[in-house]
Each structure stands twice: as C-alpha cells, then as structure tokens.
Amino acid sequence: MQSIVGGSLRYPSLQSVCDLFRARINDTANNTTGTGAGTGTQAGLIMPNNNPDLLTILTSAIEDAFAELRNVGDPELILDNYILTGLPAVNSSLGVGVPNSATQVSLSYTGWFDGVQYWPDWTLPVSLSRMLAVSQRQTNSGQDFSPIQHYPAGLPGILQSQLCSGWEMRQGALWLNGATQPVDLRLRCRITFPGFLSNPSNAINFSTAYVPLLDSRNAIMAKMLVHYAGRFAPELMPVAESAEQKYMGKLKLEAIRERQSQENVRAGFGDEAIADFAVAWSWL
Q: pLDDT digit string (tens) for 229-256?
C-alpha cells in the first residue's frame, strides 16, 4: 500500500509549527553542540522549545487563529453532543424540587449550582467559548432530547416544572430556570484553544501535542512572526502582517465556502403568505 505523504495524522504538531517558525527567523542552529542544524529540543539558540517567550508567542498565535476561524463559523471549532446526565433538581429555601420563581441554576467551569450548593461533578467543557444550543430530557427517561428556549435578554422569573424552560449565558456560566426533577443536558458550542501551553515546557512534548486545525501550520507560524517582528524588527511588521493575512485568509475562505455551499430556501410567497397576514389579497 502506498504510504500517505506526511503520515496519517493531518493536524500540525507544535514541533512542526515551531520548526517552521525558527526556519523563518534563521534560528535552526543546534543549541547543544553549537554547530550545525538542530532538531526537536536541540533546535534554536534564540527560540528553543524551552524558551518561555516561544511558549507565550505560540499560545497567542493559536488562540488568535481559533478566534478568527470561530468568527467565520469553521465547523472544526464546534463541539457537539456534549452530554451531562443526572443534573440535580432546583433547590432553594423552599426545599429540593420545590418550584421557586426567585431561583435559578447554573452550569459553570467549576460545577453545577442548584440554587443552594455547588456540585463539582458536572461542568462546562473546558474549551467552551460560545454556547450555540442546549437541549434536555428527564434523567433515565430514554426520551429524545428537546431544545431549550434561549433567552438572550434574560431569563423570565417563572416557576419551575419537570423540565428547564429557558437558558442564557452570563458571567461565564450557563444559567437556566431549573427543573423540579433531575435532567440530562446536551450542549453544542464553539470552542477555543485550552491554555495548556502555560505549563512548564518540560511538561509538553512538542512532537505529540497537536493543534486541532487542519492545514493551520503556516497560518500559526505567520502569526508568530508578527509578534516576533513587533519585538525585534518593527520595520518589518507590515511584511509580517501581510503574510499572516494571506495564510489566514486561505483558512477562513475554505470555511466560508463550505458554509456557502449549503442551500438556503426562503418561505414561499403565495397562499401561505396570505394566511399569515390573514388578508384576502385577491390579486395574489
């Protein structure tokens, strides 16, 4: 069988991104022997893998790439079917499971708040950036998930029933009216890049840590060059920014074209329109 050029794993590794970055800034010397070109952890005298500045620049470049692609709706940055089961019923001074229109519940990065106490066993996805949809079902019901209504202007103060009546995002948490019985939630959201690169460099294996964005190596490298130029060669910032826009433009255009390939159908203008307006437009 013919081998696949580049291997079967299509995501760029941190090592491949940093190797390309060092090649562009002419920093490929062996940092162990001082002569010849280095590879892996032995590459680079100015920006080796264990340079904290490299980690900072790399993290910033990846975060920025994620942000730009989220803005154009890249499906690679969508997390779906994130299931949380058995979320406790609403709680308040009236008791567990007793409706109370003054009580709301929330799901955050640290746990589930039932109105009185936090339960750390249920949390938001650590990489969540923007919530797109929330659906629910009663725990152990075996039923289909049904969508929960989104209230972007704030949840109504209403009594709880067996299922949650609405949700909104505020202060970095998912807030709901709550339910009088345990429920399961199903989340769909946009994700960001987790900041694990803030850990000590010796805890990161650059060769086995990957950026989950296909064909993103050039774009991330170009973003790193913008930071590098701003620090060491401000006169080259326009050149670096132009290259970054070119590489990122390719990634964004691919995502935009994929979304544009979806057919959009508007509502018909005829009998349905007449019924909607309840007006006898005889000339239609």
A: 998 889 999 999 999 999 999 989 888 8
